[in-house]
From TrEMBL:
Organism listed in the record: Sphingobium lactosutens DS20
NCBIfam families: PRK10792.1 (NF008058), PRK14186.1 (NF010783), PRK14188.1 (NF010785)
Pfam families, per the entry: THF_DHG_CYH (PF00763), THF_DHG_CYH_C (PF02882)
Keywords: Amino-acid biosynthesis, Histidine biosynthesis, Hydrolase, Methionine biosynthesis, Multifunctional enzyme, NADP, One-carbon metabolism, Oxidoreductase, Purine biosynthesis
Record's protein name: Bifunctional protein FolD
UniProt cross-references to InterPro entries, sorted A to Z: Aminoacid_DH-like_N_sf, NAD(P)-bd_dom_sf, THF_DH/CycHdrlase, THF_DH/CycHdrlase_cat_dom, THF_DH/CycHdrlase_CS, THF_DH/CycHdrlase_NAD-bd_dom
PROSITE patterns named among the record's database cross-references: THF_DHG_CYH_1, THF_DHG_CYH_2
Ranges of residues in domain Tetrahydrofolate dehydrogenase/cyclohydrolase catalytic: 7-122
Family: Belongs to the tetrahydrofolate dehydrogenase/cyclohydrolase family.
Lineage: Bacteria, Pseudomonadati, Pseudomonadota, Alphaproteobacteria, Sphingomonadales
Amino acid sequence: MSIGKIIDGKAFAAGLRERIAQAVPTFVEQAGRKPGLAVVLVGEDPASSVYVRSKGKMTVAVGMDSFEFKRPATIGQDDLLDLIDELNQDDRVDGILVQLPLPDHIDEAAVIAAIDPAKDVDGFHVVNAGRLATGQEALVPCTPMGCIMLLKDELGDLSGKEAVVIGRSNIVGKPMAQLLLAENATVTIAHSRTHDLASVVHRADIVVAAVGRPEMVKGEWIKPGATVIDVGINRVPDDEDTGKSRIVGDVATAEALAHVGAITPVPGGVGPMTIAVLLRNTLVAAHARAGLTKPDGL
Ligand SMILES: Nc1nc2c(c(=O)[nH]1)N[C@@H](CN(C=O)c1ccc(C(=O)N[C@@H](CCC(=O)O)C(=O)O)cc1)CN2
């Protein structure tokens, strides 16, 4: 029995950050300033706080300016929209990211809609979603963009490949399908109402699992030799006595390894790509705002 390859997303993300760090000084020379990323954190969710801290550190590490805005979970919607407006007007800021999820009393869609599409480094604004869907230059959501980079690195040309995306969220599933289409893959989006998901998955050369359900995709569903991208990050109890937990993906990796050609692990697969692509998008947005051509290789 052969075992599939583990795709090292952590190493790929480190390489991407290195290429970004090499491109930043040329931008500084041409634009006379550093690219800048503003990250807004509402509340004190521990995981969100970790991600925001990590974003700040990595932004500075590649030579960009990092601006962090922490607001209490009780902030009113109007005050949050005022902050976004200030950041839209601030010329030092090329990218604006509002860490999700937001507290229930905030209308997430209204906050995303308030971000200047030129600074929407998350690629969540409808203008960027529409541009992506119609094949125009767009800022693309970081996680699906990271998945496409890993897929192209692993498989080269994706043209004609049968791809199944499980999950239809605006943040991952839909943009993922659009990106695969743009690479000329034949794309199916499966979701909670899909009949016989196992058979749908079994015909795929490429499986992208983004459902948020621990180890839902079983090894025997996978077509032999398929490439599997696991977007899920699910915390599950590890040891009932100690109360410890561990992170698993949406794919039952241990059993899938006997079927796949290659698979991203969780952790260490898609997750690290999310922040690396955020830095890439910030540099791309900075070039566009400064009227400069996007550097090659990003
Ligand atoms: N505005 C946004 N909010 C959120 C996004 C986003 O892209 N934009 N994505 C996620 C959180 N996220 C970044 O914000 C993120 C999630 C996971 C990772 C990561 O590297 N995960 C590690 C495991 C981490 C762990 O041990 O807990 C991995 O998979 O190896 C990075 C960034 C939701 N919110």
